[in-house]
């Protein structure tokens, strides 16, 4: 049996189920309790779990991110919500030095089973400081894992796995996806980290994407199909581990690859995936990989400029045409 | 209103003075052990057996020993990078600390942390940490966890308190202030212990922080109990700290103590100490906490010169053996490079395994 629920509900179900299952799991962040979640993700959780387990914090990211890591050192399993990943920048020392390196620095003594989660990427005319795509900033740090769910089904399945993982997981949601509805099973399920999935099947070109831009990829694939170009759309699901094997498998079949990444182009996830595709599929490629990113500028406020800046369907269509020599 | 108490060496040593000779002798031995460890570490560093940064605790021994004596073994301890003493005072064997500094597999962190990262999970020693102030948010997390375990998991009242140490330099980091505020808002049982040794690296406390003449002022805005304690006298440290610790345990409210001390050596091994005078150094050296306590033990507790000599000899032997053991401990095999990155095995990563010290203890 399945139900149709919003992405935000899927996130809440994942957290609530895991909190029922394990008393060591708690949720902490700004406005998660009495406000019922700045984006209503944690609505109702205070009522069910009480103020000891659903905990409001002041606007103090360094403090509560570090608190979560210290609690994880003690064996608890915190979920730390960043209202926006943009605000995680002020906690960068905690989330990059203390969470992913603690196990190593302590010679295996202190695993950090923690999930940092919140909205990532452009929310819609929020201006440059609130529109960060942190994946390319953070994913390079060994010791952390990073998931970036596409829909309600993945949001729930990946978040449950992330909460059970004994390593720090950076969980990148999108404000623009919170209201998107999707089918979710009644029964429990988990999605492993590091396993990509195919969102659309086609033999002419592989489009690799992560998170929200996948919707633009699918839109582009639809348009391209009308031109007779059928695309594989591969959802990486997690950035670290990166399921390069599934990506390479697709590219070996299509011989062409476009990588779509909402971060800036320079030293980015897109650059990393492209490099790995070149390494794994050098003999299979009939053209070099083409990348589609946000433009290399701060996120603008003006609606038309922001739309142009993001990796939209038009840019992806153009990239696929170019890479397959159809342009 | 928060109450400020002041522990001074000149005040009657009401609490420590009531403790047995045996207990006080362990304090003296611990202080001697830390001193010897640090002296030998400096030599090993000069002989290039220890790499990276080395920050020694010489002069500050009374702080770690006096405060940890006032805590229980179950109380979490966390500190900054001048951390050897806290691990030793907690009971981590010197050889594991020394092996860590020499980058050997037998080290408390298998040679992956170094001097600034002494960890001992079994002894609730949650590390030395390298970034100034960054251990303070972790400290409130440890305190949060002790309370959470009581309130949510066990329904118990373990009443553990967390000892969160930092230097005067951390007073100017946001991470400390966010931690103090959160500890206050969430009623966390933690004591913020400012080891004020007068200098954040080469910057005198007053050049870097407001109200340097009375750092307990920092606690007022957070509504904490506070105390300013003479850190050159281990008995004064215990006397000043114990009531704060008991109150923290009782009320689950955070507290702040300033412990005034002095590092006899530089910030690290490369520090020429141009920012302070020889005269000042000599003035503090005359207050050497070990000499001071030795005199007390001789005069008031009848510890004879022979007994003191025997203690010194046993400490020297222990450190000598620790160095020998550390030097014999193997360098980590290259496979260790990819171990302890993640707990699980995937890609090039090889899972995790704890240090040898926990196999044997």
Can you offer a commentary on this structure?
- The complex is a heterodimer of chains A (327) and B (361).
- Chain A has 327 residues and is an alpha/beta fold.
- Chain A contains eleven helices and 14 strands.
- In chain A, 37% of the residues lie in helices and 19% in strands.
- In chain A, the strands form three sheets. Chain A has a seven-stranded mixed β-sheet, with helices on both faces. A five-stranded mixed β-sheet of chain A has the order 9-11-10-13-14, with helices on both faces.
- The longest helix of chain A has 15 residues, at 7-21.
- Chain A is globular and about 60 Å long.
- Chain B has one domain: Rossmann fold, CATH 3.40.50.
- Chain B is built from 13 helices and eleven strands.
- The N and C termini of chain B lie far apart (46 Å).
- At the A-B interface, helix 3 and helix 4 of A face helix 5 and helix 6 of B.
Q: Return the CATH class of chain B.
A: Alpha Beta
- Based on the structure, what is the oligomeric state of the protein chains? heterodimer
CATH architecture of the largest domain in chain A: 3-Layer(aba) Sandwich
Which second-level CATH architecture of chain B applies? 3-Layer(aba) Sandwich
Give a quick precis of the structure:
The complex is a heterodimer of chains A (327) and B (361). Chain A is α/β, with parallel strands linked by helices and 327 residues long. Helix content of chain A is 37%, strand content 19%.
Topology:
The complex is a heterodimer of chains A (327) and B (361).
Chain A (H helix, E strand, L loop, with lengths): L1 E5 H15 L3 E5 L15 H5 L4 E3 L4 H13 L3 E8 L7 H14 L9 E5 L15 H4 L6 E3 L4 H13 L4 E5 L7 E5 L11 E4 L4 E5 L3 H14 L4 E5 L2 E3 L3 H11 L2 E4 L8 H13 L8 E3 L10 H7 L3 H11 L4
Parallel strand pairs in A: 2-3, 2-4, 4-5, 5-7, 6-7, 10-11, 10-13, 13-14
Antiparallel strand pairs in A: 1-8, 6-12, 9-11
Chain B lengths: L3 E4 L13 H26 L14 H9 L7 E3 L4 H7 L3 H8 L23 E4 L6 H20 L7 E6 L6 H12 L4 E7 L2 E2 L2 E2 H4 L8 H4 L4 E6 L3 H18 L3 E6 L17 H8 L3 H13 L3 H24 L16 E2 L2 E2 L5 H5 L1
Parallel strand pairs in B: 1-8, 2-3, 2-4, 4-5, 5-9, 8-9
Antiparallel strand pairs in B: 6-7, 10-11
């Amino acid at each position: 049996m399945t139900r149709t629920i919003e992405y935000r509900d899927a996130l809440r179900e994942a957290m609530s189920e895991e909190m029922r299952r394990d008393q060591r799991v708690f949720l902490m962040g700004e406005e998660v309790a009495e406000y019922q979640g700045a984006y209503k993700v944690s609505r109702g959780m205070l009522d069910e779990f009480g103020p000891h387990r659903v905990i409001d914090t002041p606007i103090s990211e360094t403090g509560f991110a570090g608190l979560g890591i210290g609690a994880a050192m003690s064996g608890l399993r915190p979920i730390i919500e960043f209202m926006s990943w943009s605000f995680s920048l002020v906690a960068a020392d905690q989330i990059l030095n203390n969470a992913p390196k603690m196990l190593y620095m302590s010679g295996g003594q202190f695993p950090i089973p923690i999930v940092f989660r919140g909205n990532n990427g452009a929310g819609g005319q929020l201006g440059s400081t609130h529109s960060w795509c942190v994946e390319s900033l953070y994913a390079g740090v060994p010791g952390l894992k990073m998931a970036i769910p596409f829909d309600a089904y993945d949001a729930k399945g990946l978040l449950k796995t992330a909460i059970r993982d004994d390593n720090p997981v950076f969980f990148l949601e999108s404000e623009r996806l919170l209201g998107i509805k999707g089918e979710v099973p009644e029964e429990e399920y988990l999605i492993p980290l590091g396993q990509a999935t195919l969102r659309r099947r086609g033999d002419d070109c592989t489009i690799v994407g992560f998170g929200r831009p996948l919707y633009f990829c699918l839109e582009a694939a639809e348009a391209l199909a009308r031109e007779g170009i059928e695309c594989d759309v591969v959802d990486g699901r997690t950035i670290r581990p990166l399921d390069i094997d599934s990506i390479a498998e697709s590219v070996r079949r299509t011989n062409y690859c476009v990588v779509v990444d909402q971060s800036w182009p320079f030293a980015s996830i897109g650059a990393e995936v492209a490099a790995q595709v070149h390494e794994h599929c050098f003999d299979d490629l009939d053209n070099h990989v083409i990348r589609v990113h946000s433009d290399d500028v701060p996120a603008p406020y003006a609606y038309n400029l922001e739309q142009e800046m993001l990796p939209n369907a038009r840019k992806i269509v153009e990239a696929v045409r170019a890479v397959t020599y159809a342009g | 209103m928060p109450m400020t108490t002041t522990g001074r060496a000149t005040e009657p040593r009401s609490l420590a003075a009531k403790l047995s000779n045996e207990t006080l002798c362990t304090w003296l031995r611990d202080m001697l052990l830390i001193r010897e460890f640090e002296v030998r570490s400096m030599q090993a560093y000069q002989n290039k057996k220890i790499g990276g940064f080395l920050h020694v605790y010489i002069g500050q021994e009374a702080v770690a020993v006096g405060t940890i004596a006032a805590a229980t073994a179950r109380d979490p301890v966390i500190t900054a990078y001048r951390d050897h003493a806290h691990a030793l005072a907690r009971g981590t064997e010197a050889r594991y600390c020394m092996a860590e500094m020499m980058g050997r597999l037998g080290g408390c962190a298998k040679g992956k942390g170094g001097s600034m990262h002494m960890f001992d999970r079994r002894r609730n020693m949650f590390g030395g940490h390298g970034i100034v102030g960054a251990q303070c948010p972790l400290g409130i997390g440890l305190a949060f966890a002790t309370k959470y375990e009581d309130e949510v998991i066990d329904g118990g009242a373990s009443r553990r308190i967390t000892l969160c140490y930092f230097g005067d330099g951390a007073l100017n980091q946001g991470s400390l202030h966010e931690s103090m505020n959160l500890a206050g808002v969430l009623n966390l049982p933690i004591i913020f212990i400012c080891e004020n040794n007068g200098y954040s690296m080469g910057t005198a406390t007053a050049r870097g922080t407001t109200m340097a003449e009375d750092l307990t002022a920092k606690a007022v805005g957070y509504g904490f109990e506070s105390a300013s304690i003479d850190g050159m006298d281990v008995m004064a440290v215990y006397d000043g700290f114990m009531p704060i610790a008991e109150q923290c345990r009782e009320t689950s409210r955070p507290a702040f103590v300033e412990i005034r001390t002095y590092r006899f050596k530089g910030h690290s091994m490369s520090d020429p100490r141009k920012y302070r005078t020889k005269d000042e150094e000599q003035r503090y050296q005359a207050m050497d906490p070990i000499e001071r306590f030795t005199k007390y033990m001789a005069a008031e507790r009848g510890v004879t010169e022979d007994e003191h000599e025997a203690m010194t000899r046993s400490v020297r032997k222990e450190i000598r053996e620790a160095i020998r053991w550390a030097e014999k401990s193997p360098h980590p095999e290259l496979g260790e490079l990819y171990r302890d990155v993640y707990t699980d095995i995937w890609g090039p990563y090889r899972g995790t395994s704890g240090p040898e010290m926990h196999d044997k203890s």
